[in-house]
């Protein structure tokens, strides 16, 4: 558990400790942008009651987005979304057997009625889910908006100031 001092605005959850290698990229982005967040292992099939409790309490605790990473038959994001109106951002973790295609399809193919915003498989998806959560918060949290703008400006400058790939 790595919680920031302020009340968390974003919850990062994952189906297993083994997902942390991927999901740490979401936490790192939120940390860099100054977004208060919490991190938990919540498994749809190993700890279903915890999943329900987490979803039921999310809005009341002030969470404004939940980034949920899972691999294989990845039920976690969809089940969370079914139990809370807090937006769920799904990150397909790259599985060993099917390289994450199983994770991607089981997260993205939600039937109409309960949406899960789905990101790329693996590290890029985790990082982008965090950036997306920050963008969602930016209108109401100007400090987060400023951090996001600064990050994007630096990213642009880094390319422009080093655009010769041979050096
Ligand atoms: C899913 O099963 C987790 O999200 C993880 O990606 C996958 C494998 O879990 P472990 O067997 O490594 O705990 O529930």
From TrEMBL:
InterPro entries: PurE_ClassI, PurE_dom, PurE_prokaryotes
Pathway named in the protein's UniProt entry: Purine metabolism; IMP biosynthesis via de novo pathway; 5-amino-1-(5-phospho-D-ribosyl)imidazole-4-carboxylate from 5-amino-1-(5-phospho-D-ribosyl)imidazole (N5-CAIR route): step 2/2
Keywords: Isomerase, Purine biosynthesis
Ranges of residues in domain PurE: 8-159
Enzyme nomenclature, EC number: 5.4.99.18
Example GO biological process: 'de novo' IMP biosynthetic process
Catalytic activity: 5-carboxyamino-1-(5-phospho-D-ribosyl)imidazole + H(+) = 5-amino-1-(5-phospho-D-ribosyl)imidazole-4-carboxylate
Group of enzyme by EC: isomerase
Binding site for substrate: 16, 19, 46
NCBIfam families reported for this sequence: purE
PANTHER family, alphabetized: PHOSPHORIBOSYLAMINOIMIDAZOLE CARBOXYLASE, PHOSPHORIBOSYLAMINOIMIDAZOLE CARBOXYLASE CATALYTIC SUBUNIT
Protein name: N5-carboxyaminoimidazole ribonucleotide mutase
Organism annotation: Lysobacter spongiicola DSM 21749
């Amino acid at each position: 558990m790595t919680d920031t001092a302020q009340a968390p605005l974003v919850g990062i959850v994952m189906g297993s400790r083994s997902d942390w290698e991927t999901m740490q990229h979401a936490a790192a982005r939120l940390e860099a942008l100054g977004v208060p967040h919490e991190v938990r292992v919540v498994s749809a099939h190993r700890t279903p009651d915890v999943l329900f409790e987490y979803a039921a309490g999310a809005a009341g605790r002030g969470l404004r987005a939940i980034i949920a990473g899972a691999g294989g038959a990845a039920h976690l994001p969809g089940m969370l979304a079914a139990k809370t109106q807090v937006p769920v951002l799904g990150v397909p973790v790259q599985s060993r057997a099917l390289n994450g295609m199983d994770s991607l399809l089981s997260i993205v193919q939600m039937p109409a009625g309960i949406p899960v915003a789905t990101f790329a498989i693996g590290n890029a998806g985790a990082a982008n889910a965090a950036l997306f959560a920050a963008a969602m918060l930016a209108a109401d949290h100007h400090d987060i908006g400023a951090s996001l703008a600064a990050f994007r400006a630096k990213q642009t400058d880094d390319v422009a100031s080093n655009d010769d790939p041979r050096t």
